[in-house]
Design brief:
The protein is about 25% helix and about 25% strand. It has about 400 residues and is α/β, with parallel strands linked by helices. The longest helix is centred in the C-terminal third of the chain and has 18 residues. It is elongated, with a radius of gyration of 22 Å.
Length: about 400
């Protein structure tokens, strides 16, 4: 039994997953609930990778943030367990890890994320951070002028579309650098408007930017299969191409004993509580919320931390999850800053600007607790001469 220095019982909070959502939840709980909680982070990985920089890494313009998870856990004042939680007995409030060990809990937060699966048959899938496989080969062919037409696409369903446009914009930048103007670059997307999740204004301005950069756009179009030099789409005719790069398809990483939909995503209420279960919450990509973005995940984590802290007393009133979309679009030239309110009820609040909408830190994820920590650790790593802990935004150079 965990107690504070006065012998008071601490609520044992287990967090399954130490990605963006899990670490933000731990930091928020430590701030809002203080010594009332004993935090335990579970993750089979030993390293935290800051994935928003993945597009720049693919083009060799940036290295992603990478941090030791045990060190990050220390910053959260949490115990780190290098193991994954595979099942939950919600009646006994007990979890089982991959090695068969059992751990009791008072509260459980699931931040297990989503699996990335092959996106569109026949295409080259962009997996994200440190993707040096087939995507790297395609980019070498692009720079060498061996591709007359390259297509960037994504499957329908749960996903985050921003990397699709960054990949295409960076491709145009690479072609400009080597003086190739005969290669066509096309985006094929199921969206009605590019980045329309941010709002119509962003979608229209994004369309204008793509036209300005010479990128062709096919919206409302689902890719089906790439074979024999052509991409089959619905609706429409086949598209001839030399290479097609697709974002992956996403599938939730549920935990045994927790209800989920057919795609593995967990349903939650407005405060992040797993529907039908007591004392169990879910945050981030594993939830049914359709937009899979780091900033959204951290907002969900903050809402859950507020809910837990409010139950423990102290006068805090928990606010329901009300998502705000903020993102930085790397264009290959000057970045664009995007803002939107996907749940509506706020009027036309979307923004596509050369200036940040509100406070924005050096990274692409704006998180209440994680962003300041990443900034602090990055500054520390630079002063200590450890470049593997630092990253910079991609540039056109």
């Amino acid at each position: 039994m965990a107690t504070d220095g006065r012998g008071n019982y601490k609520q044992k909070v287990l967090i399954a997953g130490a990605g963006v959502a899990g670490i933000e939840a731990a930091l928020a709980l430590r701030d809002l609930a203080g010594e009332q909680v004993a935090l335990h982070l579970f993750d089979p990985r030993l390293e935290f990778v800051y994935r928003p920089f993945a597009v720049g890494e693919a083009y060799g313009a940036v290295r992603a943030f990478r941090y030791d998870l045990e060190r990050l856990s220390d910053h959260c004042d949490a115990s780190f367990h290098p193991n994954g939680i595979v099942s939950v007995d919600t009646k006994r409030r007990l979890v089982v890890t991959r090695d068969g060990n059992q751990h009791l809990y008072d509260l459980l937060i699931l931040a297990t994320g989503a699996r990335m699966l092959w996106g569109v048959p026949g295409t080259v899938t962009f997996w994200g951070a440190a993707d040096e496989g087939q995507v790297g080969e395609v980019l070498e062919d692009l720079r060498a002028g061996r591709l007359r037409h390259i297509v960037f696409t994504m499957p329908g369903g749960h996903s985050w579309t921003l990397p699709l446009y960054e990949l295409a914009l960076r491709a145009i930048t690479e072609l400009d650098k080597v003086g190739i103007d005969a290669t066509r670059v096309t985006i094929v997307t199921p969206e009605d408007l590019p980045l329309g999740v941010f709002g119509r204004r962003v979608g229209e301005q994004m369309s204008a930017l793509l036209t300005e950069r010479g990128i062709e756009m096919l919206a409302g179009t689902h890719p089906m299969r790439f074979e024999d030099g052509s991409l089959r789409v619905v609706p429409g005719e086949r598209i001839s191409a030399d290479a097609v790069v697709s974002l992956p398809r996403l599938e939730g990483r549920p935990v045994g004993g927790v209800p989920h939909d057919d795609s593995g995503f967990i349903g939650v209420d407005e405060h992040g509580g797993v529907i039908g279960l007591e004392g169990v919450y879910a945050v981030g990509d594993v939830t049914t919320f359709p937009f899979k973005q780091g900033a959204i995940s951290t907002q969900q984590a903050d809402a859950v931390a507020e809910t837990i802290a409010a139950v423990m007393g102290g006068g805090l009133q928990a606010q329901p999850f009300d998502p705000i979309l903020r993102a930085v679009l790397w264009t290959g030239h000057e970045p664009r800053y995007l803002y939107g309110r996907p749940t509506g009820g706020h009027g036309e609040a979307s923004s596509f600007s050369e200036q940040p909408y509100g406070p924005l830190r050096s990274g692409k994820v704006t998180a209440r607790y994680l962003s300041p920590l990443v900034d602090s650790l990055s500054a520390e790593s630079e002063s200590n001469g450890t470049p593997h802990l630092a990253a910079r935004a991609p540039s056109a150079s």
